[in-house]
Amino acid sequence: MNDENGEAGGLQRTIDWRQGLAIALGVPVLILPSIGYFANYVWAFAIIIWALSVFQGFMQNFAYGELATMFPKASGLPGYAQSVFTSRNANTRYDRSKLLGGFSAWSYWFAWNPVLAIFSILIGSYLKGLIPAFADVPDLAMYLTSGAIVFLFLILVNYRGLSGGATLGYILAVLSLAPLIVISLAPFVTGHIEISNITGAWLPTDWSWDIQHILILLGLMAMAQWSACAWETAAIYGPEYKQPKSDVPKALFICGSICLVTFILVQAACTGTLGIEGILAEPFSPMLPLAQITLGPIGGALAILMLIAAMILIIQTAFLGASRAMYSMAEEGNLPSFFGKMNTHGTPVNAMIVIALLNMGFIFLGTPAAILAASAIGYVCANGISLLAYVKAKIDPRFSKLERPFKAPGGWRYVALFFGLFNLPLCLIGLVYLNSLEVGWASTIVGFVVLTLYLPLWFYSQNENQTALEIDTSPQGESMV
Fold first, then answer.
1. What are the pLDDT digits (tens) for 352-410?
2. Which of 160, 358, 460, 473 has the lowest CB atom count within 10 Å?
3. Structural domain of residue 75, as residue ranges?
4. Spatial contact of 30 and 257, defined as CB atoms under 8 Å apart
5. How many angstroms separate the Cα of 250 from the Cα of each of 44, 234, 247, 436?
């Protein structure tokens, strides 16, 4: 039975747009691992790429905002694609539309899932640099310990529902975003920034607009999208907002505005203060020398503490998003029912525990580079399919009578179609090419292998669904009812 607070036994409507925004505010932190990566390829032009990517996020999220009000019980991108690509014939066991919707959700899950392992490794690295007593601890042991503590902590915090996670989000947003903005604004106030470091180094001297460099640019746009468009995660909690029709658009576009400022500001501050050579000297942590230059000796320690708080926030964002994606797939019959089991507080604990264990396994790889590149393949696929789902929802008569309190501007299906095709195939091709230059073919192979693993899980779930249906419709099942 449904009520205004949600569906009994399912996700509970316990948060408003402010709490959803607080959880999603971990997204600006995703720029931190990419500052040096982008500067290495395109120098100061990285500022433009971040701006274009956030703009792309706005264009895509107009469509996602409308989908959120059309399907208020759907969990963000995974739920939208599954709601649109549904079977017309409920008796069809292996329906291709259902498979496509589920694959989009699986791609989205794979895009967010490795964030837990990546940032747990970084937390362990920063703790080793911050606390001398940890200096002699083996790297793998440090990474596994930090991951286990963070994962267990977040499971306990979120065990009673999203409201606990949102409260933690409020706290960590202040601890992470405020110092991030302060450190980035500091060189403008202190006069340490040199605009010539930006205007005099827009692109590498050997840059040319040939097919190879265009593919690199497309690959960087795909990598940037993984970070700068990820604020659509605010929509994944659609079934848990008290007023999804108004809360989802508010959370989405306020978070997007914050991302637009922070992504441009952080890259510009690092480039203008350190120069390209300074960034490449500290490609994984350029915020550290930036803080030391502008804030003095205490700046380094402040930056490390800020980064640790920020990484816990983004781990929570990924943890909650990935668990909701698995729950959504199980609810739609696209994953085994085990992943749809809820505790008494409406939290998909089974999915959270499985994700934590998987990421503990990822940590054994020791380096996040290949996993990060592979997960971006999943994100490109998820966005491409979800945008095509929006186009289908606009033209399919089955959805014409659905209420749409929030509507994208007229003709937006053509905008969604453009960005859907921009993701698939253009960004995907560019990303595969960029991965081949950066880490060889390993990340591409890992990405496609993980995406392909969805197939056996999906076929198993379809057989499970059919078995349950046969039991329900059998004389014995009817007598039990």
1. 888 988 888 888 877 776 677 888 999 999 999 999 999 999 999 999 888 887 888 88
2. 473
3. 11-88+95-463
4. no
5. 32, 9, 5, 39
pLDDT tens column, 317-330: 788 778 878 888 88
Structure-derived torsion over alpha carbons of residues 212, 216, 218, 221, reported in degrees to the nearest 10: -170
DSSP code at position 9 = T
467 contact partners, CB below 8 Å, separation of at least 6? none
Burial class (CB within 10 angstroms; exposed 0-12, middle 13-18, buried 19+) of 332: buried
Longest CA–CA span in the chain (Å) reads: 80
What tens digit of pLDDT does each residue of 166-186 get? 566 667 667 767 788 888 999
Residue 474 within any structural domain of the chain: no
- If one counts the domains in the chain, the total is 1
In a domain, 475, yes or no: no
CA atoms of 97 and 424, how far apart (whole Å): 18
Q: Decide if 274 contacts 35 (C-beta within 8 A).
A: no
Residues linked to residue 15 through DSSP beta bridges, in sequence order? 241
- Residue 170 is predicted with a pLDDT of 67
Between the CA of residue 27 and those of 291, 352, 368, 441, 460, what are the distances in Å? 21, 20, 18, 28, 34
Asked, as a colleague might, if the bond just before 425 is cis with ω within 30 of 0, I would say yes
**Token pair for 352:** 């959270």
Distance CA 217, CA 15 (A): 39
> Is position 470 within any domain?
no
